[in-house]
Amino acid sequence: MDRRASAQDGNVVTMKRFSDYSKWIMMMLNGIVAAYYPVRGDITEHAISSYFLVCRILICSTFLADLSLMLLTSYLLRFGRISERLYIAAKILINTTGVLMMLTSASLLLLLNPSYAMVTILVLPVMAIVIIVFYNEINTGQAREVPDYDEDQRSELKQFFDLSASVTSAAFGGMIATIFGYFKNFPKDVDQVDVKFSEAFIFFTVISGLLAMLLTTLPPSLPYPNATSRYITFIKVLKYSLFGLLVLIVLAVAAEFLGQVIFLAFLPIFFAVVVWFRKEFILLGDGTSHFHSATGHESEPDTSLITITTFIFAALMAVYSVNFGSESDDLYVKTCMFFLSLAFMSSLSWMAYRSPRTPSLAKAVTVLTYSTIVWSVFAMLGLIFLAIRSGDGKRE
User: Fold this and answer.
1) Other CB atoms closer than 10 Å to residue 150's CB: what's the count?
2) What is the model's pLDDT at position 265?
3) Stated pTM of the model
4) Where are the domains of the chain?
């Protein structure tokens, strides 16, 4: 009786994770609709019709699958009692939604240029991982909160999901802004757009992020304790890979306007490292003394910090998509991109090291905090100036 009640409690916890996953996917799909509406005429006229048809089918299919998942999880959470058959149905829906979302991302990239077909091959090994995990989960039978994940590991998985979801939504928004921005600003030349590293990195980030979201929402049932620890390590590597991909995106995008100057965006990080080194080895001698984190383990990311980083990235991608193809010597655009790059690198580093374990690392995080605030203010002023200048140009 106790085991049955425990299994039901585990099912409810898992259903809440499924519900969070479906909400993030629905938010990304709504972003497609919001970005498509202003450029629907240009896309209809200039996009390849067959690619556009496939893209619309995949978007609608993803929407229906995610809506079904959302309704099913809401129903199960409301009534509390979850049967094995309904739980398996939820597993099928969440994996179907994840795969369809990956295919939708690939179709959107191909809508921009069919030459990206080689880039979209990345979807195949990712889908293979999803299928392997799905097959394993179906064979486990009755769903449950898997006992071989302890409380700290489940907390880590929840944290990794929050981070991967925020990174994925930011990258997906950047991809949508870039693709639809091309159609809006250069509709007649969109088929001549070369394959660029920036768009490829964005796509890699979206696919990797969708995989991370799925693997942290529905972790596989593993038979041995050392297997679960290795799985957590794999998720950590995937998380930091997402951070690295975001950095590559910013470097590739900003380099279109700044050239070699973009490497100065690492200055806040280098300065924070200098501060850390001085306090760690010169002032204290032992950076691990007399300092304890608030929770004893890595805390969950601050929602406001995730929002700031996501907003800065979205603003940078918006400036890129709107000004792509403009004069390369536009000082105002270059200055704005430079400030946005500095703000993004500072905020991303701040988010990655938000829970310092030593006083020296805490000092470095403080430097990154102030750097994020200062450069964000300059970046926002640059965005306001660009918006005013754009409005004046349209009136003329």
Assistant:
1) 12
2) 84
3) 0.79
4) 1-221, 255-396
